[in-house]
Design goal:
Number of helices: 14
Largest sheet: 6 strands, parallel
Helix content: 40-55%
Strand content: 15-25%
Structural class: alpha/beta
Amino acid sequence: MKSFNKHRKSIILADCEKEEVEEFAEGFKAVTGDEIFINSKICNGSHGKAANFRRYFIYAVYPFYFVMKSRQYKYVIGWQQFFALFYVFYCRLFHIKKRNIVIAVNFTYKSKAGFAGKIYKCFMGYCVRNEYLDYIHVLSYNYAKICAKEFGISKNKFIVTPFGIPDTYEKWKKTKVEYNNYSFSIGRSNRDFDFLVNAWGRMPENELLVIASDTFCPKKKLPVNVIHRRDIIGDAQFPYIANCKAMIIPIDDGTICSGDTVLLKAMSYEKLVAVTVPSTLGEMYIDDGKDGLLIKKDLKKFVDIFSKEINSDSAKEIGISARKSFLKKFSRYAMGKNLCQLLKYKREINYFENIETDN
């Protein structure tokens, strides 16, 4: 059995601008000392059936190119999880010699209804119950347990670290928007905006809430102090986060990992962040009362706690602590470094000695 060529390069397969994962790559490199290269193919950008088909097509086709060059790589890191999943799908399907350590980063699975849902679960199971996929990165210990049970795999296959984002505070902190003295809530999926609207109906009328979501359909007339916007998307959201006095993240399903980017962006901008619990966000990111608020999804409790904290002297102190926590634990550099350190802890680098490969 030949030893793994430790001089081979490692790659990140991403679906975003390369700049978004450069800090992650640097953190990873800080632990391994190896060169790591970012390969990106942007899949998103628009909505609709045609856009969805194009995205799925890229998910399936793009990784095949790297399978054909698999002997060149040491680590294959799927920043876009489906790039890693299709990579191991092809390796298993065509019985490619095991040459790499493959990690699916930011993994999430949500069951789908009907026949399509059964096909989807079969595909996901084929990929995760697969010797070519070495590790699955998730954002919460509870979610690791759920996925392990769902697919009948060992919890040892999971790596749990918080998410991380680039620090853009200096770029956006001096921008202005048309609102003053408002709280902000944004999101497209797994948000319980109906709960938030009901709670805000009990807040004083001079407390303004701006909800930014192009998927939220209010079930009733909004209170006079709630503004719903469908056009605040992409980079346009950052000035609204930078100028709000608080960010609120009302979670629908507390077992699904979502809202991480919004939470960390608000923390990095020194904002008071309130998250409903249970949620993976509360489990992994917030130290309640110190760098954020965790509030049970009960109308009375939410109103009592949030209305007390929003205009208090401690709100600014919590925001300052939030940024300190972000810089120490939740930057994208910290994410890459923490993930790689856990790989070493799991003796992953030694595992290369057991991989057959060509010269």
